[in-house]
Design brief:
The chain has 373 residues and is α+β, with helices and mostly antiparallel strands. The chain contains 10 helices and 10 strands. It has a domain of 215 residues.
């Protein structure tokens, strides 16, 4: 009899040890999966933090405490967006801002915008010539795209003369063998311009993948337009950062007042966030569809590359979090059931004991501690 009891005890003990090992392995597996999920989320945040390119909406607000939104419009191949259209939209936006009575800090502005047209030209300098991609910019383009300056200064809307250009570093070295070129003359389609600065294009991994082949040159839109035969160069992209009294105000106003035509309106306000990555994941498949012919500039292609990688990280984080989350919910459910059973068993006894103690205290108040029943 004693031997049978010892055999049974040994069997139960072995079964418990095997169960403990399985439970420990299960807990370790869930811990690894949870860490992997957190790792993918951190990778997403790292990618968003390392992204170069245009400024984000919050940067335009500064210390004003006013919410700013940032939107971009990329026009279709058949659209003819002109400066007149932009000036008309600016006036409508100013009127709307006046109606909203936004209180801006002294010297602050309710909005800032920029536009750009793309073309090609022949540029020549001291060491030869090259085919270049022309970025004909207007408004505060370099306020939106603060490319790293190697020398000189950016073009800005307040420039009186239209005879300045900015070269990218590759073009500067190809035509002059250096990047300290401020004040030198460059010929663009046989017309002389002065070099106002040299910039280095973004070098993060997404920008390198999205980088357009060839060298780039920046000049004012008005100067490039004056060089065209019909002087009606269509604008390819428009960017706006503006204060918005309520969320969604700016996007709704642009859809109503801006001549979008066959272009695409992109809300940049939430792109550099986990919410933006989740939004890109929800639009998986649909993002690749194009119903109009339009060309994204390299900064938009770079932003979309980052979005796709972040969407992948968010998807993997969600996938790896499923098992730990379900296990936690199951453990919580079992814990609540056990707690309910424990309370069901203990509460009546505790309540009875509490009633007895109350009767004893009442008796002692009436008869004293030494009284007899």
């Amino acid at each position: 009899m004693r031997k049978e009891r010892s055999d049974f005890t040994a069997a139960v003990g072995g079964e418990r040890r095997r169960f403990s090992r399985r439970g420990l392995r299960f807990l370790l597996a869930n811990a690894v999966l949870a860490l992997a999920s957190m790792g993918f989320l951190l990778a997403c945040l790292f990618l968003l933090g390392r992204q170069a390119g245009p400024r984000r909406a919050a940067e335009f607000a500064g210390d004003s405490g006013i919410e700013f939104g940032k939107l971009s419009v990329y026009m279709g191949a058949g659209d003819k967006l002109s400066l007149g259209d932009i000036y008309s939209f600016r006036k409508a936006l100013l009127d709307k801002m006046s109606e909203a009575s936004l209180e801006l800090p002294a010297g602050g502005s309710s909005f800032v915008d920029a536009w750009c047209a793309f073309g090609s030209a022949r540029a020549s300098g001291g060491h030869g010539s090259a085919e270049v991609t022309v970025n004909a910019v207007g408004g505060e383009f370099f306020f939106f795209h603060p490319l790293r300056l190697k020398s000189g200064a950016y073009l800005c809307e307040d420039d009186v003369m239209d005879d300045l250009v900015v070269l990218d570093r590759e073009l500067a070295w190809r035509l002059y063998g250096g990047d300290d070129l401020v004040g030198l003359t460059i010929m663009v389609n046989d017309r002389p311009f002065l070099i106002g600065g040299v910039v280095e294009r973004d070098r993060d991994f997404a920008s390198r993948r999205a980088k357009d082949e060839g060298n780039q040159l920046f000049m004012s839109y008005s100067a490039w337009n004056a060089m065209s035969e019909d002087r009606a160069t269509p604008i390819d992209c428009y960017e706006l950062a503006a204060a918005q009294p309520v969320k969604g105000f700016l996007e709704g106003f642009m859809k109503e007042k801006f001549p979008l035509g066959g272009g695409e309106l992109v809300n940049d306000s939430q792109r550099a966030s986990l919410g933006g990555a989740w939004s890109a994941l929800r639009q998986f498949g649909e993002r690749s569809m194009r119903r109009t012919a339009l060309r994204y500039p390299e900064w938009e292609n770079a932003a979309r590359c980052i979005e796709d990688w972040c969407a992948l990280c968010v998807a993997l984080a969600a996938l790896f979090a499923v098992c730990p989350a379900v296990s936690a919910l199951v453990a919580l459910g079992f814990g609540l059931v056990r707690l309910r059973k424990y309370l069901s068993a203990k509460l009546p006894a505790l309540a009875s004991a509490a009633v007895d103690r109350a009767h004893v205290r009442r008796w002692e108040r009436l008869h004293g501690k030494g009284g007899e029943g």
